[in-house]
Amino acid sequence: MLEGEKVIKLSNGKKLGVVCRDLVFRIFGRDEKKHLFRIYNGWALNKELLEDLRNMHVEFIEIHTKQGNIYKTNIVNFFDKEKAIYYKNTKGEKDIQLVLPLSFWFKKKKRGNLRDILPAEEELAHPNTLKKYVSKTTKK
């Protein structure tokens, strides 16, 4: 973790996400099949958590999924009554969730790591490898 970043944990101690220096709250490892709020087709976050994040001057929420997608939205969307949906679980849970439909999120695919793109070290030992790699990646 970099200096100036803050880890946000659930009441059970499990790490939920990180508030980064760029004022983005990042959540990692969400499974869209399990965590996407199907009834409203959106992502839900705890209202108190969102209020705490807003008080920390967080500007954006970013959700990184196991399916390789990144969802990003401005935190103010959660507090817009015309966009967000208030949801209280009927199973007796006390917390209120704010659900923000996917239409208010920007979605993009994660890019591969440089290791996925660059040739292996053994290949770099060959003098022509870098030439081939550069010509492949710079052609339009």
Low-pLDDT residue intervals, each spanning 5 or more residues: 113-140
| Termini Cα gap | 38 Å
Strand content: 25-35%
Placed side by side, the strands forming the largest sheet appear as 1-2-3-5-6-9
Dominant shape:
globular
Largest sheet: 6 strands, mixed
Strands, helices and their partners?
Layout: E1 6-9, E2 15-19, E3 24-30, H1 32-35, E4 42-46, H2 47-55, E5 60-65, E6 69-74, E7 85-88, E8 96-101, E9 106-109, H3 114-117, H4 121-124, H5 129-138
Parallel strand pairs: 3-5
Antiparallel strand pairs: 1-2, 2-3, 4-8, 5-6, 6-9, 7-8
Written description of the protein model:
The structure is a single chain. The chain is of the alpha+beta class and 140 residues long. The protein folds into 2 domains: 6-109, no CATH class; 111-140, no CATH class. It is 22% helix and 34% strand. The protein has 5 helices and 9 strands, in the order E-E-E-H-E-H-E-E-E-E-E-H-H-H. It has helices spanning 32-35, 47-55, 114-117, 121-124, 129-138, and strands at residues 6-9, 15-19, 24-30, 42-46, 60-65, 69-74, 85-88, 96-101, 106-109. Strands 1-2-3-5-6-9 form a 6-stranded mixed sheet. A 3-stranded antiparallel sheet has the order 4-8-7. The radius of gyration is 20 Å and the shape is globular. The model is unreliable at 113-140 (pLDDT under 50).
